[in-house]
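SEQUENCE, STRUCTURE TOKENS:
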Amino acid sequence: MGSRNLEYAARASGFRIAAVCDLCALARESAQAQARRLGFIGVIARRDFQEVLADPSVDAVCIATPDHWRPYITVEACKAGKDVYVEKPAFLYIDEGPKMVEAARKYRRVVQSGVTERSGVFFRKAREIVKSGGLGEIAFCRIVPSGDWDLWRGLDIVHFAFDEAMPTSIAAQTFHYPGFIVSYESRSHTTGATFFHGTNATMMVNRGRCDSFPQSGDPQAVDGHCSARHLGVAHWKNFLECIETRAKPIADIEACVRTAAACGLAQLARRHHAILDWKLPWKLEV
């Protein structure tokens, strides 16, 4: 994702690539060469990320390290006055997530998580349909996995559509929310998707399409294009806009933390054959 994000940032028109950083010399050289091919001259190659954070000419950083490094570097980048684009999942341990949110709020940083689906036309339209009430009352959502559609992506679009709702309890593959339930199926399909089942219609959405199936009448499809490159560039454009305006990005770090925490708790529930029922402390104000 480091090389992909380098391309997306370059295509977003507005970023100047100042430096690349990696412990591996081969990776540094490869990133530096990629930056030159994208038209950026004089890109510095660093081995230590602290040197990048100490550079006053750097306004924002992209963190595409292995998962376990992302929370620490994100917090340090916020402390250094940098805005941050951090890949998903943003952390491994659930208690790391709130610390990332606290750092973003305390130091007033824009922190965009790499949930590129939120910048896609199909996902934005799905959210509009849910919020408009066009599906009727929604009591049940279903996530059907595939090679490029997993629990993380499927659950995040549910959170996005319902204004970042959080489950009140989790029993392995069933998530209980105020007013509705989400299930995750343990079977792979050629095409995975998230389904919203309403009293008026059912809607399915994934990276390739968004269709609604009313109780009566013909199915309705949303027109658009949603390739991985399109999603990535649109997501980086949103990041740039928020750097300039200081607005919250479409995939603000708190949204990423909520989804990652719910998925992590589901793994714990499945592993221990337990039902997790709790009151979530998700008002993360500093």
